[in-house]
Each structure stands twice: as C-alpha cells, then as structure tokens.
Amino acid sequence: MSISAAFFAQAQDVSIIRNTADVYSNGPMVGSSKFNAMAGANGALGGDASSLLTNPAGLGVAISGEVSGTLSISGNKNKSTWAGSTIDYSKTNTDLGNIGAVMAFPLMTETGWKFINIGINYSNQSLDNYIESPGSSDVIKDFSDKTSASLAGHAYNRYGNLSKTSFGVGANYNHNLYIGAGFNFFNASIDQYDTAAFKSLSDGSLEYFDRQNTPFTERSSGFSASLGVIGKLSPNFRIGGAIETPTFWRIDRAYNFYNDPTYGDGTGGEIRDLTTPLKATVSAAFVASKNFSLNVDYTLGLTRPKYKVNSGADLELNSFFKDNYKNVSEVRIGAEYRVQQFRLRGGYSYASNPFDAMTVSQVNPDASTEDRSYNNMMLNNRNLASLGIGYDFKAFYIDASYQYITSTYSNPFLRGINTGDPATDTAYYSPYNNTTNTPGRIMSSDYFAVSEVKNNRNNFFITLGWKF
Predict the structure, then answer these.
(1) Could you tell me if 19 and 375 are in contact, meaning their C-beta atoms sit under 8 angstroms apart?
(2) 289 exposed, middle or buried (CB, 10 Å; 0-12, 13-18, 19+)?
(3) pLDDT one-digit tens code per residue, 314-329
(4) Which of 3, 171, 332, 421 has the fewest Cβ atoms nearer than 10 Å?
C-alpha cells in the first residue's frame, strides 16, 4: 500500500490529486438553511429544491410552490505544524450559497397520480484554501553555483468556486410513492499555486521556487444525471433510494513551465477529460408526527476517478487512483422538531478518507530521511456537526443554521525531480532575476516533507423563503 514512485516522477503534483478527489469528485452540498442544519440528510423526507442534492424524488413530496435564497458565510482555518512550529491561516467568504424553487402542479385526474412538480436548485461553495507549512534551518539545499540555502517554508494556495445547477421533476402517486429525476450541471474555477521558499545562508535573503507546471488555472464544466424513489412503508416510516451517474468533466488547463530545452520558460495549455465516481444513496426516515422527523442517509461511491488517456501523465494519474483510491462513503443524520411556528434542527455527518494508507520517502526537520507510512495522506475523514432554527410566517419563513466541520491530514510537499525531460520534470524553479541579471535556479528533492494540517470550518447560513 505505497505511492507509486513512477507517479511522482511524472509531471503531476499533490494538488492535482487532491483537487481530483476533493473538488471534482465531490459536488457542493450547500442547500437551504434547513438542509444544512440537518447535515444534508433529507433523502427520504424531501419537500424542497434541496432534494436535488440527494434524491430528486423529494420534489414529488411538495404540495405547494416554494422559492428561497440562502446567504452563505463560510470560515476556513488551517493549522499546519512541522519542525515544532505552527502556521495558522484563516479566511471568511460571504456569498450566495443556494437558490431553490419548486413549482407544484396538482393533477385533477381520477388516477392515483396527485402531483407533478418541477424544481431547480443552484448550489455554490468557495474553494479557497491556503496551507503554509513551516521550514527548518537544518534542511539545507546546495545549489550548482556553490551557494546554500535552508528551507524557509512551503505553501499550497488555491482560489476558486464550485457550483452545481440542477433541474428536476418529481411525481406523487397516491401520497405513498414518489419518483424523480434530475440533470446536474457543474462549473469549477481553480487557480492553484505550489511554492517553496529558501533562505540564503550567506545573506539571509529569501528565494521563492514554483513547482514545474505551476501556477496553473483550470476552468471546468461537468454533467451528471440522477434518479430517485421514496416509498412510505407506513404513515410513520419512509425509505428512499437514489443514484447519480458519474460526473463527466471537461477541464481546460493553463500552466507555467520552466527550463524547457526548446522554449525555456513559458506557458502551456491542455484539455483533460475526467470521469468521477458513480454514487448511490439509500435513506430512511421516521416521521413521528407533524412535529418531529428524523432522516438517515448513506451515500457510497461505486467507482473511482478516471482520466481519459491523452498522455503519459493521464496514465500515471489513473494508475495512482487504481492503486490508492477507495470508495468514499458518507453517513448523514438529521432531525427537525416543530413547536408551533418555531423549528429546531440538528444533524451530523461523517465522510470517509478517499485514500488507502501510503508510504513515502521523507526528509525530517533534523534533515534525516526515512520511509514512513501514513493513513491520512493529502485528505482524511471529515466530521460535520450542525444545528439550526427557523420561524414560519405561513406564506414566508426565515431559517438560520451553523455547521462545524473538522478534518486532520498529513500534507506532503517539496519533492520534485529534475530529469532533464519536460515530460517527467517535477522540480522547483526560481525566476530569472532582472535586477541582478542572474538566471533562475533549480531546486530538486528526492524526498517529501510532511506537515500535519488541522482544518476547521465554521459555516453560517441564512435563508429567506416564500411559499405559494
């Protein structure tokens, strides 16, 4: 259970692996405040447009029209520890997190079909993330010009947004069986950086090195479809099931390259096609009365990410995911209690680590080296706790919710090999210095450094809605 050495010899980097699993394989799950307060658990309850995020059959549960908008305030904090030092990062983004609408159409027929409902849902989340790891004065690089510098630190920096727009239809048969289908359109915008800093031993100046083929930008679009069903076993118990096809992504990339024997330093571009996992969700709900409901969802990824092979880099990516990726599962539990017009809600979810244990060759803060195994490399399991309140004014309502999300993982950085071949070069490069008229320099390393990152997210949501 080890990372393929050949993979890291190719022109790939940790951020591409992380983004494939964390961004492209996980659509945004920002719904209404009610949805968020219940940790996204509504697969057998349904009733509003957020159902399109889990089970489109939930559209058929609605018996009136509804439109809502949700303001999202998301806080992200990272604590990266290495060499006995810790660097904190925090950022808050305020954005339109969700818009949803359901139009309910009663069927005046003598058959069992009661409603045909149409829904639309827009979900949006920030991808901004900054992981800065400390350096060590004992980890020293000797450059070809006879100068030396110590590792001053490293940073992965990502900016962007991920959105999902869903259109669906749901049907109600005799208030006992609900079916639905949805079409999902994704858009992602990513600007990614991978930078190492070194401090000169002679004059203390800092020099910054960008990894080969970084910074890079990706502007991507994707499509998936979903089908779902909800059935009442009794007036108090419901079960549901849904399946979402793989998301088919077209990724338009642009990147910086360095030290090419023909072109020197410059920019390049490519288009990648990615297919992310097929997902299935099963749900169960208990509705004790009009005042209390409880829902449990279980979602499992049934396949692994796969790139269309246009180059050796795509082959290496697919080989990595074949050897190290495991099916991701998520459990979501949510409950709502009503006291007249007041609503009290809470939830919890757990998502598993997408990767198996991995062994890497690493440099330690004291400059010693070793092979070490990690069971939380690059990403790890995620815990989410949520709560919320609401008030129903009959035609209008207002809801608020809060989510606390935690994850701790090992963060590999620094490794890069100067092979002399543009197709396999992964080293770090500093730019040409116009002030001193000196060429850029190459930093290569056969080893990773691995910091520990503790990530905490505090998300707040406010929803205003109208029923008609």
Answers:
(1) no
(2) exposed
(3) 999 999 999 999 999 9
(4) 421
